Amino acid sequence: MHSDNSPSPLQTDVLICLDNQQVASRIGSVLSEQGLTVTSMPATGIQEWIEPNGCQVVITHTAMIGQVRTRLKLPVVNLEAFIFDRPEHVAEGAARQFDGDAFIKRVFSVMSDARKRSPQ
């Protein structure tokens, strides 16, 4: 996984645009395990970012979607859509849960749709 703040000329399937680099790293690892090439950058650096070659999807959070769509002409997957409250588990310290399976399916679905729309 390539993970830094500088634009990369390398082929990249997924751009992760999150300020929490620990979360970005975990998400990147999950996607890399699925065979995808991943680059991450903090959301604060989006204005200087150049779209990576071959990038098919951007993963970000709700507050950044507008900026990402303005700066990059790529489909967006909202990471927060896959985080669910689990009120019955508050006492155990796991009040929220990430639906990783649904997230992976969504990323691949968006990438598939992007390939269908791109000029051949």
Give structural notes.
By secondary structure, the chain is α/β, with parallel strands linked by helices. It has one domain (2-117): Response regulator (Rossmann fold, 3-Layer(aba) Sandwich), CATH 3.40.50.2300. Helix content is 32%, strand content 19%. It contains three helices and seven strands. The chain has a five-stranded parallel beta sheet, sandwiched between helices. Strands 6-7 form a two-stranded antiparallel sheet. Strand 2 (14-17), helix 1 and strand 3 (38-41) form a beta-alpha-beta unit. 22% of the residues are buried. The model is unreliable at 1-9 (pLDDT under 50).
Give a quick set of tags describing it:
two-stranded antiparallel sheet; 7 strands; alpha/beta; 19% strand; single chain; 32% helix; Rossmann fold
Radius of gyration: 15 Å
Beta-strand portion reads 15-25%
Amino- and carboxy-terminal Cα gap = 28 Å
* Strands side by side in the biggest sheet: 1-3-2-4-5
How would you classify the quaternary structure? single chain
User: Mean pLDDT, as a whole number?
Assistant: 82
Helix and strand sequence: EEHEEHEEEH
Q: Point out poorly predicted stretches.
A: 1-9
Give a short overview.
The protein has 3 helices and 7 strands; from the N terminus they run ββαββαβββα. The chain is α/β, with parallel strands linked by helices.
